[in-house]
Amino acid sequence: MNVAIIGGGAAGFFSAIHVKLNFPNAKVTLFEKSNKLLSKVKISGGGRCNVTNACSSISTLSKAYPRGGKALKKIFPEFYTKHTMEWFEKRGVALLTQEDQCVFPVSQNSQTIIDCFLQEALRLGVEIKTESPVQKLTPKNGQIYLHVNENEISFDYVIVATGGSPKKSGLIWLENLGHKIENPVPSLFTFNMPDETIRDLMGVVVEEALVKIKGEKLEGNGPVLITHWGMSGPAILKLSAFGARILAEKNYNFSIEVNWVNESNHILVMDKLEDIIESHSEKQLQTIRPYYLPTRLWLYLLNRHQLNSMKKWRELSKKEKNKIVQLLCNDSYQVRGKTTFKEEFVTCGGVSLDSIYIKNMQSKVVPNLFFTGEVCDIDGLTGGYNFQAAWTTAFIAAKLGK
Prior knowledge:
CATH class of the largest domain: Alpha Beta
Low-confidence stretches: none
CATH architecture of the largest domain: 3-Layer(bba) Sandwich
CATH topology of the largest domain: FAD/NAD(P)-binding domain
Number of strands: 22
Radius of gyration: 25 Å
Distance between the termini: 13 Å
Number of domains: 2
Mean pLDDT: 96
Helix content: 25-40%
Strand order of the largest sheet: 17-16-13-14-15-12-18
Structural class: alpha+beta
């Protein structure tokens, strides 16, 4: 049996390894267009490689995928986070689960994961060909022919693991075969705010905030980090992922509302202010921070909304109290552009799941052609979820429909 894997990244290697584990006598050849293998694994997690997430509930896990969650929920029982951790540990990779549930190798070095894959592929006899771009794929007489470096090679089975493509042009070869392609747009990015002075608070973190896109039913909660270009952190990244298509349509020019205290009930926030006035009536606004907001942020908000920080709490008028509730719950900022999160590029889009039998990851158009990883229209939040989707779909695809 002759099997080709197109793509030398995470999903490609995991597929190749499992094809050999499932079919030891199969000839498995992995084609990588560049001269580098597992390059995205190398830079992921700031060079530490966030291999998965420790979430053990399949229902909760599937909600971490803005696109593809329902499909993954059907196949997670076969291979999900628990299995991933067992798989690596069985191969000598010690893992560490952080407080935020992100799972990393104990070595804190992505090279540990790369070495594990390379050793396993070598042990099993996977043939690896670098600088071997697949120019074309042609199904013919029950075989699939790959056009590689001016050679035409036939295979019984082919697994496409080419990763996310930033432009649709990178997926035309699959569209030409009859697959539906969802137009790729960026997911997981931070917000640029070139016109906003809040950038001067670079480094300030609010642990629990709620961020909404004005005019849309989109919101993200969790930590917000203020950066020298705008805002980042889990709440922003969640918003960028779930709103990927909408924000692309807006050309990344939109307004956000930040609820710095993650409390939507304005009456409760007003009650909190009244408690402060009762307990600290003689203190100045600048010395008592509602909800223990970071000092720099609180002073910035008072100044931004023209409230005298030297004023005593008991001196606040009704209008000023309402103003404080508004600045805490509905603080508005203009976003003009985006920045890729760290060096990790994640796309929303790819081969539509309408063109794939999710139970075995096989193409509905070309028999014996399979898809895995980010080439599919599946993407997750930051926190190990995108790698988990790669491991799960690769594990399923590597069964070759058997």
